[in-house]
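Quick one, T. Sequence first:
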Amino acid sequence: MAIDNPYDQIDQQYPKEAEGVITALTRTLESANDLGVPFPHGVGGLLAFMNSKTINARLERAHAFIDQLVADMQTVQGSVATMRTEMDEVQGAMRISVEYDVDQFNDKKRERYISAITQSISSETKVTDLVSFIQDIEKLGERDIIGLKVLNSVMNRNGDWQDPPGPPGLNVPRLHPNTFTTRAQELVVTMARALGNTNADDTHPFSREEGLQVCLRLQGFGLAHIVSGDTREVPIANYCARPTTRGMMLLRLLGEPVANWNRYFGPDGAL
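Structure tokens:
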């Protein structure tokens, strides 16, 4: 039998004695609002969250995800025949993305899941273990993404690489650590500002701890590498980090521009 009453739908998902605790709370909240009685901040959000976990809400979320995925995949339809990423990888990424989306109801992450899937189809570089990138997106917070973008903009620039003289097989192109360490001051200021410290500059001392913690977290995902330097004076001494090839691949899957791509990747993946 169809359940028309949304309160009954909630109660069926969260059965309690009598009329159900969610129904009781919801009705109390509505009655209080009608009488002009202020309710504690956040109660309404809690009830909305509980309602988002009903079967119907999850189904609607899944349908919306699939509709958006289909629409976005139409833009890369011409790349399917020549795609380098394995179809099994793409299908696995689709399945786990839907699961994450109906659990979290996070629109920003939904956009990133779908971007990773469509970019893997159109990418001229083969994406290996695409599901693990979807898992990273699910676990990374907004500040993690901001930090990764900052590392890419400061520590990976056009012109960083120079071809050495001599036979290519004997003198392999490489980056000296000074490429990164000389930009440490620029990195910490840019990172601090991106994370919300608008007063950070080259003149006045400020804590580098938040930016360092973001870099350390990214390093735990294999997306960044802390470049070794002198022991830091906490909390005002600089730190240094760079994006790894995995971090660059994730940024590309999110639709971000990544400089020096051909220095790090070939058609079959990381060099």
